């Protein structure tokens, strides 16, 4: 009886703590991004996108604009693929788990296998996949609009330049939102095999993401040897415009 009690309530301890680790890390990442954009890869990529847009618009050459449109189209195609993947996986997983959930209720899973817990797992996983779908769809929408604006760009049109910057940077943020939702979906998927794999995946995920999001920026700065670090420290990848 005691063993059964401990096994069932293992989810109540490990799963919330694993999600807390993931959420705490992403809150810390957002704080670093908004206080010092150049200290995260998200902010650094956004700043590079702003510089890219300014270079493209100020150049104004037809060949340059065509190459820029090709780059945006490539990202749009990738976003469409990820959005389709997220929606398809949510449909397939929902159908599979709804029709054959006996495996996840068997003794092979060390954890709570009650029907209500399995239902919570389904809802959590599907929510992450649908959030990823929404993020990629919005990214595609913003990038498509940026492509339209790029065809109308002319050198010296600062208002149109800021509009393109806004669409490109926001598209990048939505793209990152979709990716982060997929990361959460992976941890939720491992929860079906027990709370221990789920908690372990959260810890390893945070370690890997920290290296990718923060630590690798130090390597980037050392490699590039930035001549004007103050410019990147103060810059904000946010743009304002007026129609």
Describe the structure.
Helices cover 81% and strands 0% of the residues. By secondary structure, it is mainly α. It has one domain (20-29, 40-234). Helix 6 packs antiparallel against helix 7. It is elongated and about 70 Å long.
Question: How are the SSEs placed, and which strands pair?
Answer:
Blueprint: H1 2-8, H2 10-35, H3 41-59, H4 62-99, H5 115-151, H6 158-191, H7 195-224, H8 229-234
| Strand-pairing-aware structural class | mainly alpha
What does the radius of gyration come to? 22 Å
Helicity range = over 70%
Helix count from the secondary structure assignment: 8
Order of H and E elements: HHHHHHHH
Rounded mean pLDDT is: 82
Biggest sheet descriptor: none
End-to-end Cα distance: 68 Å
Give the tally of β-strands.
0
Characterize the overall form. Answer: elongated
Q: Residue ranges: pLDDT <50 for 5 or more in a row?
A: 237-243
User: Which band does the percent of strand residues land in?
Assistant: under 5%
Q: Number of folding domains?
A: 1
Keywords: Membrane, Transmembrane, Transmembrane helix
InterPro entries: DUF599
Transmembrane segments: 12-31, 81-104, 116-140, 181-211
Pfam family, one: DUF599
Summarize the structure.
Keywords: Membrane, Transmembrane, Transmembrane helix. With 243 residues, the protein is mainly alpha-helical.
């Amino acid at each position: 009886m005691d063993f059964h009690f401990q096994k069932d309530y293992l989810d109540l301890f490990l799963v919330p703590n694993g999600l807390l680790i993931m959420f705490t890390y992403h809150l810390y990442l957002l704080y670093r991004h908004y206080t010092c954009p150049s200290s995260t890869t998200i902010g650094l990529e956004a700043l590079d996108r702003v510089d890219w847009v300014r270079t493209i618009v100020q150049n104004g050459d037809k060949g340059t604009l065509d190459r820029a449109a090709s780059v945006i189209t490539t990202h749009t195609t990738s976003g469409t693929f990820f959005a389709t993947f997220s929606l398809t996986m949510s449909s397939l997983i929902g159908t599979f788990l709804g029709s054959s959930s006996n495996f996840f209720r068997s003794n092979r899973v060390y954890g709570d296998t009650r029907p209500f817990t399995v239902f919570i797992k389904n809802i959590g996983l599907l929510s992450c996949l649908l959030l990823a779908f929404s993020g990629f769809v919005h990214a595609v929408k913003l990038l498509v609009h940026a492509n339209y604006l790029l065809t109308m760009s002319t050198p010296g049109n600062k208002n149109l330049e800021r509009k393109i910057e806004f669409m490109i940077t926001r598209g990048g943020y939505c793209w990152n939102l979709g990716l982060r939702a997929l990361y959460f979906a992976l941890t939720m998927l491992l929860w079906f095999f027990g709370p221990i794999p789920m908690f372990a995946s959260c810890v390893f995920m945070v370690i890997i993401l920290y290296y990718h999001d923060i630590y690798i920026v130090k390597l980037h700065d050392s490699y590039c040897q930035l001549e004007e670090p103050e410019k990147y420290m103060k810059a904000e990848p946010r743009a304002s415009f007026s129609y």
